[in-house]
Amino acid sequence: MPFNDRDFLEIEYDTWDKEGDSLISTTSEQHAKDAGAYNKDIRYGPALVILGTHSIISGLDRELRKMELNSTKRFTFGPEDAFGVRQEDLVRVMPLSEFKARNINPYPGMHVDLEDAHAIVKSVNSGRVVVDLNHELAGHTVEYEVKVVRKLDKPEDKIAALGRTYAAEPTGISVSGSSATLEYGAKVSKNIDYFIGRANVIAASFSYIDGISKVNVKEEYEKAVEKTEEKEGKEEK
Predict the structure, then answer these.
(1) pTM here?
(2) What is the full DSSP assignment across 119-186?
(3) SS3 content of the chain, % helix, strand, coil (to 5)
């Protein structure tokens, strides 16, 4: 059965840059280690894809719709179906003072977020900074090996997948009618990344899960208690 717009799929994949024949992305921790591309800050495992939301390259979005559960296929995509054709007008020269005003000390290869786009610093000299707003794989041909491992139908499963994607997975989820309740227990670290991730989970639930029009959030906090024995030991010294 073909997949359609707004379907939630979990996929496993490896992606290679055909220009350099190198692995550039994978959901497999072992594949990343074997290729010398392991990153301890990346969460490996099946990735969430919501078809028709421009979250993946157009070629992959198109081909996934023709696949079946537990099937594995290999695709090669040219720039038009991948990360776009390089546009020279997206290479710009900016005054170094603009970076200094933002407390940024640019260097070649640095990734920076400008007001309207993400860019890569290409060079810094004579008070000028050359930045490239093209995607770093623009103009490249890429190859994917993809397996569709799961299609999510229940709203609870969709919310859980969004939580994993945004690093804010609830410890409890319940859905009743058009209302969803997300629970975050005391053991969930309530740092700035959590609050950003939680906001993204809520926004995506409204945007992509049909029927959800209200989200309640329940949070649990525990007061940090100093260990009595440690305190007494310090006082005795």
Answers:
(1) 0.85
(2) EEEEEEETTEEEEE-S-TTTT--EEEEEEEEEEE-SHHHHHHHHHHHTT---SEEEEETTEEEEEE-T
(3) 25, 30, 45
* Domain assignment of residue 233, yes or no: no
Whether 147 is in a domain gets the answer yes
Same domain, 49 and 146: yes
Residue that is written with structure tokens 């028709």 in the block:
52
Q: Classify residue 235: in a domain, yes or no.
A: no
**Is the pLDDT confidence value at 140 over 60?**
yes
Buried b (16+ CB within 10 A) or exposed e, 11-34: bbbbbbbeeeeebbbbbeeebbee
Q: Are 28 and 76 part of one and the same domain?
A: yes
- Cα torsion 62, 203, 168, 226 to 10°: value is 170
Find the domain containing 172 and state its range.
154-227
Residue type, 226: E
- What one-letter code names the amino acid at 221? Y
pLDDT per residue over 28-54, tens digit each? 999 999 999 999 999 999 999 999 999
